[in-house]
Amino acid sequence: MRTKGAGPLFLAFGALLLVASLCVASGFGAELKVKVTDPQSAVVAGALVTLYSQNSSTAVAVRTTNAEGTCAFSGLSASAYRVEVLAPGFAPATASVMREAEITVKLALPKAAETVVVSAERTPLPSADIGSDTSLLGPDALQSMQPVSAIDTLRFLPGAIVSANGRRGGLSSLFVRGGDSRYNKVIVDGVAVNDPGGTFDFGVVPMYQVDRLEFVRGAESTLYGSDAMTSVIQTWTATGTTRTPELRFGAEGGTFQTARGYASLAGARGRFDYNLFGEQFNTEGQGINDRYSSSLEGANVGVQIAPRATLRLRTRHLTDRSGVQGFWNFNGQQLVPPDSDARARQNNLLASAELTIGGPSRWQHRFSGFEYHHRRSVVDTFVDPGRFSPAFGNFDTPFSDFANLNRAGFDYQGDYVARSWARTTVGYHFEDENGWVGDLTFLPLGHGLRRNHSVFGQEVLTWKRVSLIAGARFEHNESFGNRALPRIAASVLALKGGETFSGTRLRFAYGTGIKEPRLEESFGIGGYGLIPNPNLQPEENRSLEAGMQQSLLGGKYWLGATYFNNLFTNQIEFNFDPVRFVSQYQNINRALGHGAELEFRARPWSRVTIDASYTYTSTQILSAPLAFDPLLRAGAPLLRRPKHAGSLLAVYTSRRWGGNLGVTAVGRRADSDFLGLLPPVTYSAGYARADFGVWHALNSRMTAYLQVENALNRHYEEAAGFPALRANFRAGMRFRIGGE
Asked: In this predicted structure, what is the pLDDT of residue 100?
């Protein structure tokens, strides 16, 4: 399926690339060259470098380092300058430099108190200056953990409550600050990959060649639009950086007949950089119909088309197949037989082209065109005997659920650095959402098409001890019309402190979030008798948060405490009319989610990072007039949101050895079998899970590793009736040829 109008859209984007490159084209000579490297002297691509006159807060120019870790400034008049370097995952850095010189800035690993992140404000900023709670997993942690999918990383992050319907490949959801599983904006290489309306499955998202993952908690619709109600999860594909081409490959095997193979070829020379990669994963799983397989191919290619202009092309293609056992085993007791033949398939293709232009002067511009095509099916052809409930009889009936969804569009972002203490971000976003959903055995399918526009702006002011952020977005959606989305945040360094107490910061934020209706909610499905509702409005969130942050021992240790309060309104509910025998979605529900997050970060030594957290969440359904289940009526807590949850992630990295330890503890929470069983299932039991991994570099080219999950062999369920894998391991070898 191709989106209507997508062809002309990309022709227009291609013309824009040509015009922009001609506008900035010039000779490659430069008066000042800045090279950015990490602590091991490897180049750092994508670092934001701002040039100031010495002893002045006025910015002269802004550049981004290319794949060789360099950027250039020309036409300079003063004799002395200073540069500020902000690179995600590192500590901020500054250096003095003379005109007509060449300088190398070596970045340092961040202290626990401060690192540079992008997702919170859509531009690189030190964590002390941002208005949201943000967690980051960099290449060291991801390489040590060797995650199979995104859900294997998110479960160890502060404030993240994951719920997987079973084992590998099972439908996996994320709940943040009491919000729904569709309240998380997921972005891969700058492209939103949620279904229209927020639905997303974290259980089948490979993490291979992901350079870093950022997790932002709070309402972020001002910057990211629809679906960013309670969090934003963003990942970036690694970029080739070595002048000599580098081939990396490896293989692993483990319990339950698990096998994985992967390879990548990456490098950078002159104006070009590239990273081509692929991965195959297979497992038989544990029990009947528990097989899972996935195949990933991707590329990240960049070219510097002018001294201040870089074009980057990215693509990822994923296919996967997983067995769907369905609800069957609760707390070790088989209530119904597992489904023996239901299966789910996905075929996803992401492609984007991004042009980054430095200048003129203090501006940096980013133009991107993108397309994401998502196709999935869940099919059951055999009626398993014994899958019976008093309410529905034999509920294992044949079906063929189908979705064919396409998102294509254009995005512009401009960042302006007026002073060292003032940064402005403005942007425009257009998106065409087109899709078919329904059951292939009950035609016709439902079809939805909407074209959405938005403009946004934000100002970040940091003056001495105070940081202020104010932004707004105007969203026009063809389904629900117009919305204005404001956001403000403030923080103040209340006490500078000394060596022991290195700084006490107070912060406050107010934000708004929206989630557009799903296509079937707005446009209906004919085969189901589900009629359209053109008046359906977006779900909304009014978000308040306040907190304190305390640095200790020169920033080696950091404590944070945040109170959050989310009011969810206009929530969409299914309404069935027994007289006309038709149904329709309506905006009628309201809910509250509030609580507190406690977080501890430590970098006691340069090779060790520790992140620990505790989250208390209290939720309540405020209004649900159509609810027939007591678990879903007003006054009840929201399902699958535990009151108590905690996590720990410790990572050790050296030249020859490394390892990680991850622990998750989740308390009892309300849940349901959704089948009308007697007695009914009304909760999921609390559980604790521990994972660990180790790796050893046998030499500079060969590394052996071992990853153990559910090491204590606990029986537990993240979603009631879907038992998780028992203790399991994967062991493998990875190799490197070429590179530097």
From this structure: 73
